[in-house]
Design brief:
The complex is a heterotrimer. Chain A is of the alpha/beta class. Chain A contains 18 helices and eleven strands. Chain A folds into three domains: 211 residues, NADH-ubiquinone oxidoreductase 51kDa subunit (Rossmann fold), CATH 3.40.50.11540; 84 residues, Ubiquitin-like (UB roll) (Roll); 87 residues, NADH-ubiquinone oxidoreductase 51kDa subunit, iron-sulphur binding domain (de novo design (two linked rop proteins), Up-down Bundle), CATH 1.20.1440. The chains are: A alpha/beta, B alpha+beta, C alpha/beta.
Chain lengths: 435, 160, 693
């Protein structure tokens, strides 16, 4: 089901079947070039498959943007251990809702992507780790998997190729941290979603301590097109080193929020104006979080920007998971900072000190400032605490909490200052014990 | 304890989904599915699943207290989960939650006395582009205005 | 060693084996990188972020506890950036940590406190309300104060990995994460207190010790545990002649930091209200307090009468008294009283093993061997219950070196969990079961065999023959019960064996014979309780008992002499593996005397010259005259364990397997002595049972 109208500016590669009748069915999939990519991959050697993915410039769509082909190449194919394909469908980055529609509207595309990855590394089983809230998606994927078993696209001797591959769905149960790949693998093993020490990376010791290819839903979904249409065609869709299209989830103060597939490198202002229909109520753009709530915020004047991994990084933020959160002038940036920190505080797994204690402390100070009980020293304190977390936590969650906070204080410091009481209000004893 | 045939079938499938010696991998799905049927992760559920997966109740407790969707106490029949995370917040998620509190006469984290409704403030549920959003149990509702919420709750009330 | 890696740490050139973690390479070079969660021997966590170091060409600070050394690596462990980061970690840690150091048990030996001093992070900018959770009692001996906890997970790991119990877990997530016990609101576990000891802060505290004193107000005396045969070193915290706690934080001794509930808590028999503090003499049918002079004179007179008359006199020695006391006692009895009627409660057939191994060397395993051996075979012993240190060693060996463990027991044991093979064998069927493992065992490169009391007499010889047939180096441990069971055997508390297992020319009466003899005229019982389970055959025997308490045997006595416990005297004891260790006197108990002193005073009273009764002088004689006991004194003097090797020459032993009987104590019992330990009896697991897994 589609929840928003498509945009004429979209380049529909991964979403090409969206809106088709019975787009979830294998028949529809097969009628629209389904498994063409996999069939090609079957005629290639594993090295050729990996080279093809490398040539496509496909970069991980979960957030980090690591080149997918390189990641696949790290898997020790000669290892005697079984190898696994794991799909990260634990979509949880605030502002992001693309994987959900990818699985909902074209489940077979994901499985084909997994099959090609399995072909590349010699994996015999795959797991789709779906966040618990997406219960209906589990049903959709299970039905698609069952259909493929019935028709010989999964199971033993797939399409007579001699290749065996099984796919299973697995559900999470409410934990943002499980979107972090090593925490996801812990969760897959029935444990708390606490990240693992790396190295070893999942390519060497992933699911059940075996070599594993672990990518985001969107990454796997891009793979069939790469093989169907050729790596060059995919790469050419975007700027150098940023192949293909990207599903951007536009949300916030725009007229036409929605998930849109646009070429990598699409201009952010144009995205807001032409795809998203501009700021609601004719308002003025104030700021954008370009890739989900972990990314540093961009001021309006920073938004004339090519939306690809490298350009956004150069602008001091991240393309992240493609969750473009648009904010107009009415947006209260202090409240935004509070809500972002509440989220990371709630989701911090508690494993390491700076993230566990830092997010809680920051939430408290930010809340105090928002409530008008802040102290002049609080603004620097917020900045320093965030910096004390940055780069020092066990996993990227601490960075994810620190980065937007630092950027908000830096870029909208006046709003934090305005929130400070003009004089110290009497009666709050906590305000007396300023250290 | 006994579960429904459908749930047992699900468990059976789960137990065959993981490599040999990795039964524990089935834990989180089993807990969530069992909770859906039983209403909560009761002590009985814990002991039953601990036995089946050959792990200790403590190992299950570690997991149950970690994941926000798993709970030891039952929720209302209709668990209304309102997202107030950034994308929803920008377009009225917080107000929607307050509206729900007034409409149901309970605060977030509480259940109505008749056990029909419970209300939760939840984190991003993956409906950002169609915000504000909420889930009633597992059902998504998009672009939810206070009026739409009223109709939704009234409809659920009428259903029984 | 080939291919050492050379790196630079704080401008010092350091070499280390590949794979060494930077934190350990630095430590070897004398550079202490601080850490809370890193702990030798336990799995890595990288959670506390205290060990962050600066590494050249790495943009982010790295955790030294997970970073392996690399050639040419340049590490700064105290650069301004690192110091600033550590300070910030401490500030984070202190946000919700209650600053109740003045009342906290850990104050003065708290790693968090030390670290805050070291980095000068004493001021906090945190002015919010701290997250508070009430303290919980997990068990009679374990308390948990969540706000003090810094979540280093040492307790969780030592319980799961070290002890193989897994009674502690991590509950909740984020800022409200807590350590939780396995039964929801309480613990069912070994009650070993390892979690308390390993806790770097005052989050886990001991029921026995909490709020009693400050660490600097105690003297800390390292001695050997008075209970089982494993011979753990326990460091007793003493204040005003009272033992307040037992632990082994300096990780010295054969046990490192390991202690079970007995070593850690069961010192409390020393000040049990029923402790004897005056000699008692039967007067008018009742035992009445008398002076030492009166009691000793009475005993001397009666013993001399019996001796002169040529009457039958029996002596039962102890499994807990020192080597010096046992040696002196048998010498006193043999030379002074002219009798070989001396025996003790034999809990394992050490003599048969020594006999079977005659002529070989290096066939007795040490405690350390259990941690390094490639393979271990456990026969008829519930190690986790009865030999907790040996069990700990084998578990650590399995975790760290992948030791292959074979189990042949009548019921489930903890070792089953990780054993290469576990076989259930009824008593008497053990050797057949071992025979069944022959193919696997032969493939091992070496083996240590531990066997319990079910393997005795001829079976020991057959076991050794079987071991020989594997064609690989095999070492043995004969499992025995108590702190000096092995020493009692070595010192010749046998009617037919002299010290060092030399045969006696005319064997005397065995313990059951003494107890049954209707014409026994005198019975002298030292630190034993034979009448708990037996009747004394002789109606008129004059019974002298040396003990701490009025046991069943003491109640039958004519004279009771109050003895000092192992914690109240010096001397040596020999553990189950034959390692000789030194007791250090921790406290004195008014009225009680060490058994050696009692023997000495008696010999003086009886004008028998059995030598000087100073422990050092007696030990000199033992070293000179007892086979295998010529152990190096410096090792003992510095608190080390010196292996006794009584293995040369054949012992023509007449096997008396019928006399071997373990008391089958569990983790929570300790013979008659255990009945007087409040902490042993307070835990709900007591008295426990064997072979329950």
């Amino acid at each position: 089901m589609l929840y928003n109208e498509p945009s004429p500016l979209e380049v529909k590669i991964l979403t090409r079947r969206f809106g088709l009748e019975n787009s979830q069915s294998l028949d529809t999939y097969l009628a629209t070039d389904g498994f063409a990519g996999f069939r090609k991959a079957l005629d290639m050697t594993p090295d050729q498959v990996i080279d093809e993915v490398k040539a496509s410039n496909l970069r991980g769509r979960g957030g980090a943007g690591f080149p997918a082909g390189m990641k696949w190449g790290f898997v020790p194919r000669d290892s005697p251990k079984p190898k696994y394909i794991v799909v990260n469908a634990d979509e949880g980055e605030p502002g992001t809702c693309k994987d959900r529609v990818l699985m909902e509207n074209d489940p077979h595309q994901l499985i084909e992507g997994m099959l090609i990855a399995a072909r590349a590394v010699g994996a015999q089983a795959g797991y789709i780790y779906i966040r618990g809230e997406y219960r209906y998606i589990i049903d959709i994927m299970d039905r698609a998997i069952a259909e493929e078993y019935e028709r010989g696209y999964l199971g033993r001797n797939i399409l007579g190729s001699g290749m065996d591959f099984d796919v299973y769905t697995h559900t999470g149960a409410g934990s943002y941290e499980c979107g972090e790949e090593s925490a996801l693998l812990e969760s897959l093993e029935g444990k708390r979603g606490q990240p693992r020490i790396r190295p070893p990376f999942p390519a060497v010791a992933g699911a059940f301590q075996c070599p594993t290819v672990l990518n985001n839903v969107e990454t796997f979904c891009a793979v069939p097109a790469i093989f169907r249409d050729g790596a060059a065609a995919f790469a050419d869709l975007g700027p150098p080193r940023n192949g293909g299209t990207r599903l951007f989830a536009l949300s916030g103060h725009i007229n036409k929020p929605g998930v849109y597939e646009l070429p990598m490198g699409f201009n952010l202002l144009r995205m807001i104006q032409e795809v998203g229909g501009g700021i609601r109520g004719g308002g003025k753009l104030k700021a954008v979080i370009p890739g989900g709530s972990s990314c540093p915020v961009l001021r309006a004047e920073e938004c004339d920007l090519s939306m690809d991994f490298d350009s956004v990084a150069k602008a001091g933020s991240m393309l992240g998971s493609g969750g473009v959160i648009v904010m107009d002038e009415t947006t209260d940036m202090v409240k935004l900072a509070v809500r972002i920190m509440q989220f990371y505080q709630h989701e911090s797994c508690g494993w390491c000190v700076p993230c566990r204690e830092g997010t809680l402390w920051l939430e408290k100070v930010l809340t105090r400032v928002d409530n008008g009980g802040g102290r002049p020293s609080d603004i620097n304190l917020i900045d320093e605490l965030a910096r004390n977390m940055l780069g020092r936590t066990f996993c990227p969650l601490g960075d994810a909490a620190a980065m937007p906070t630092i950027s908000l204080v830096q870029k909208f410091r006046d709003e934090f200052e305005e929130r400070l009481p003009k004089s110290v209000p009497a009666g709050d004893p906590r305000l007396v014990v300023v250290g | 304890m006994t579960f429904s045939t459908a749930l047992e079938a699900k468990f059976e499938k789960l137990l065959n989904s993981y490599p040999p010696g990795r039964k524990r991998a089935a834990l989180i799905p089993m807990l969530l599915f069992a909770q859906d049927e039983v209403g909560a992760i009761t002590g009985e559920v814990v002991n039953e699943i601990a036995g089946r997966l050959e792990i200790t109740p403590l190992q299950i407790d570690e997991v149950v207290t970690y994941y926000s969707m798993l709970h030891r106490e039952p929720r209302g029949k209709h668990n209304i989960q309102v997202c107030t995370n950034v994308s929803c917040l920008l377009v009225g998620g917080a107000e929607l939650l307050e509206h729900a509190e007034r409409k149901l006469g309970i605060r977030r984290g509480e259940s109505t006395a008749d056990g029909q409704f419970s209300l939760e403030e939840v984190e991003c549920m993956g409906a950002c582009s169609w915000a504000p959003a909420l889930q009633v149990n597992y059902d998504f509702h998009h672009f939810v205005s206070p009026e739409k919420l009223d109709r939704l709750i009234d409809g659920l009330r009428k259903a029984h | 060693m080939a291919d050492l890696v050379t790196l630079t740490i704080d401008d010092r050139t350091v070499t280390a084996a590949p794979g060494t973690l930077v934190i350990n390479a630095a430590r070897a070079a004398g550079i202490e990188i601080p850490a809370f969660c890193y702990y030798d021997g336990l799995t890595l966590q990288a959670a506390c972020r205290m060990c962050l170091v600066e590494v050249e060409r790495m943009p982010k600070l790295q955790t030294a506890c997970t970073l392996p050394v690399a050639e040419g690596m340049i590490v700064q462990t105290e650069s301004p950036k690192v110091v600033e980061a550590r300070k910030s970690m401490l500030e984070f840690l202190l946000t919700n940590h209650p600053l109740d150091c003045p009342v906290c048990d850990k104050g003065g030996e708290c790693e968090l406190q030390d670290m805050v001093f070291r980095y000068g992070a004493g001021e906090s900018r945190f002015t919010e309300i701290k997250h508070h959770v009430d303290e919980k009692q997990f068990s009679p001996v374990v308390f948990f104060d969540a706000p003090r906890c810094i979540l280093c997970y040492r307790c969780v790991r030592i319980c799961d990995e070290g002890m193989g119990v897994g009674a502690l877990g991590v509950i909740n997530r984020g800022a409200v994460t807590e350590i939780g016990p396995n039964m929801g609101d309480h613990l069912v576990c070994d009650e070993c207190g390892m979690c308390i000891d390993i806790c770097p802060v005052g989050a886990l505290t001991s029921g026995a010790y909490r709020y009693k004193t400050r660490p600097w107000e105690m003297e800390h005396i390292g001695t050997i545990c008075a209970h089982c045969s494993n011979g753990c070193k326990t460091t007793l915290g003493v204040r005003n002649d009272r033992i307040i706690r037992g632990n082994n934080r300096d990780r010295s001794g054969i046990n490192g930091e390991f202690l079970c509930i007995k070593g850690r808590y069961a010192f409390d028999f020393t000040d049990h209200p029923e402790r004897l503090q005056s000699p008692l003499m039967r007067k008018g049918g009742e035992l009445e307090p008398v002076s030492w002079a009166e009691a000793l004179a009475a005993v001397a007179r009666r013993f001399l009468e019996v001796k002169e008359r040529g009457g039958r006199l029996g002596v039962i020695g102890s499994n807990r008294t020192t080597n010096e006391e046992n040696y002196f006692l048998q010498k006193f009895v043999r030379q002074g009283l002219g009798s070989n009627n001396i025996d003790h409660h034999r809990t394992g057939d050490v003599a048969a093993l020594i006999s079977a191994l005659a002529g070989t060397t290096g066939a007795l395993a040490s405690t350390a061997d259990l941690y390094s051996a490639k393979a271990v075979l456990v026969i008829a012993g519930d190690l986790a219950q009865q030999q907790p240190l040996l069990s700990f060693q084998i578990r650590a060996n399995y975790r760290h070196h992948g030791c292959r463990v074979y189990v042949v027991t009548p019921g489930p044991v903890r070792e089953d969990k990780y054993a290469a093979k576990s076989v259930r064998a009824a008593t008497g069927e053990e050797l057949a079961a071992v025979e069944g493992l022959r193919d696997e065992l032969r493939k091992e490169s070496e083996l240590v065999i531990l066997f319990g009391d079910a393997v005795r007499g001829e079976a020991v010889r057959r076991l050794v023959a079987l071991g020989d047939s594997f064609g690989i180096p095999v070492k043995y441990v004969c499992l025995v019960d108590y702190s000096n069971s092995r020493g009692a055997a070595d010192m010749g508390l046998f009617p037919d064996l002299l010290p060092g297992y030399e045969p006696a020319q005319t064997p005397g009466m065995t313990m059951p014979e003494m107890l049954a003899a209707e014409d026994l005229e005198a019975l002298w019982v030292v630190g034993a309780n034979p009448l708990k389970a037996a009747q004394l055959g002789s109606q008129y025997a004059f019974v002298v008992v040396q003990d701490l308490f009025l046991t069943e045997t003491a109640r039958r006595a004519d004279v009771v002499l109050p003895a000092a416990s192992a914690y109240e005297k010096t001397g040596t004891v020999t553990n189950v593996c034959g390692e000789v260790q030194r007791l250090k006197r921790a406290i004195g108990v008014m009225g009680a005397k060490p058994d050696l002193e009692i023997f000495g005073l008696l010999s003086k009273e009886m004008k028998i010259n059995a030598g000087l009764w100073h422990p050092d002088r007696v030990f000199d004689e033992i070293r000179r005259s007892v086979r295998g006991y010529n152990v190096p004194l410096p090792v003992l003097a510095t608190g080390g364990a010196a292996p006794a090797v009584p293995l040369n020459g054949h012992i023509p032993l007449e096997a008396r397997p019928d006399l071997i009987r373990s008391a089958n104590d569990t983790l929570f019992t300790s013979g008659s002595l255990g009945r007087y330990s409040k902490s042993l009896n307070s835990v709900m697991e007591a008295p426990g049972g064997l072979y329950r897994g």
